[in-house]
Amino acid sequence: MDTNSWKGHVNGILYGIQFDRTLDDTVVTRVATGVTDGRYPGDRAETLDALTQALRHPGPLNDQIETHHSEESVRVFLSQLSTALAARA
Q1: Cα-based distances in Å from 34 to 41, 43, 84
Q2: Which domain of life does the protein's organism represent (predicted)?
Q3: Please, what's the b/e burial string for 52-87 (b: 16 or more CB within 10 A of its CB; e: otherwise)?
């Protein structure tokens, strides 16, 4: 998956969480359910691949969809989301 592909998935997820005050387990569960229910582009496997690529990326992930969440918070959230999606296999 190239950068443009995974970046689109990540931006879609960031768009969906931009107004959440905290990125807690409730938000992880909501987004994971949204992915498995088809409310985000791509299926669960494609999203997992995108998250894997994103988390390996050394640059910023929060640079196109601005949120009030720090880069570190976004990375922790995406890692937790990846774990939650993997558990739904």
Answers
A1: 10, 10, 12
A2: Bacteria
A3: ebbeeeeeebbeebeeebeeeebbebbebbbebbee
How many beta carbons lie within 10 A of that of residue 1, not counting itself? 14
**24: which 2 tokens?**
């807690």
The one-letter amino acid code at 19 reads F
User: pLDDT (tens digit, 9 = 90+) per residue, 1-52?
Assistant: 555 689 999 999 999 999 999 999 999 999 999 999 999 988 999 999 999 9
- Burial class of 44 by CB neighbour count within 10 A (0 to 12, 13 to 18, 19+): middle
Q: Is 82 helix (H, G, I), strand (E, B) or coil?
A: helix
